[in-house]
Amino acid sequence: MKPSDACIATRRATRKAYAIKVLFVCTGNICRSPMGELLFPHFFHTDGIETDSAGTQGLVDSPIDPSSAKLMALDGIDSSQFRSKRLTPQLAMSSDLILCFTEHQRRKIVALAPRVRSKTFLLSDFANLCRYFGQNNLLHGTNVEDRMREVMYNASMARRALPEAEDIADPYRKEFAAFQAAHDQIGYAIADIAQALEPSRAGHAAE
């Protein structure tokens, strides 16, 4: 029997309530972190992930930088409704995974909310972790959310095998090429994360 629309809606609402919340953090919340927030969901085939972004020195209620907006448009993503905000302890604490772009930002996040240390990663570091766990068949979850939590909870075991995480430079007030470089680094990192965390993709890659 085909499920009713109401039943499907209820299941989706329940899944949404338990969605893993991924927070991207940069400095001003108008260049890098909006691109991370907006790009991330487009690499996954699940409604079990929610994304948000903020800045350690975030401007309040500002639109995305025009260069970042242009890059989002080229990706087919409308960023016109985006508005920036500043990171707060409450926002950090309510997130399941925090991804930032430099080691300096990671330290500032942890100083603001010490209890989030274990769930705060450089984006490049988390991509390295996902790649390591995926290539070594160490992820056993059957969905993205469970596999993401596996990486987070077991990160320490892989540290010695990983390359050093790289910062993604702030393109603010720089030429468009700097924004393009940041965009590409963010996109490649997210693609690596999705490759490891999407069970269907991970299985295909391992064959």
Could you name the key traits of this structure?
207 residues; alpha/beta; four-stranded parallel beta sheet; 10% strand; disordered N terminus; Phosphotyrosine protein phosphatase I domain-containing protein; hydrolase; Tyr_phospatase_low_mol_wt; Ptyr_pPase
What secondary-structure arrangement, pairings included, does this model have?
Elements: H1 5-17, E1 20-26, H2 32-39, E2 49-55, H3 66-74, H4 89-93, E3 97-100, H5 103-112, E4 120-122, H6 123-135, H7 144-153, H8 176-197, H9 199-206
Parallel strand pairs: 1-2, 1-3, 3-4
Care to describe what's here?
It is a single chain. By secondary structure, this protein is an alpha/beta fold. The chain has one domain: Response regulator (Rossmann fold). It is 47% helix and 10% strand. It is built from nine helices and four strands. The protein has helices at residues 5-17, 32-39, 66-74, 89-93, 103-112, 123-135, 144-153, 176-197, 199-206, and strands at 20-26, 49-55, 97-100, 120-122. Strands 2-1-3-4 form a four-stranded parallel beta sheet. The radius of gyration is 17 Å and the shape is globular. Mean pLDDT is 90; it is low at 1-15. This is Phosphotyrosine protein phosphatase I domain-containing protein. Keywords: Hydrolase, Protein phosphatase. GO terms for molecular function: protein tyrosine phosphatase activity. Residues 20-196 form the Phosphotyrosine protein phosphatase I domain. Belongs to the low molecular weight phosphotyrosine protein phosphatase family.
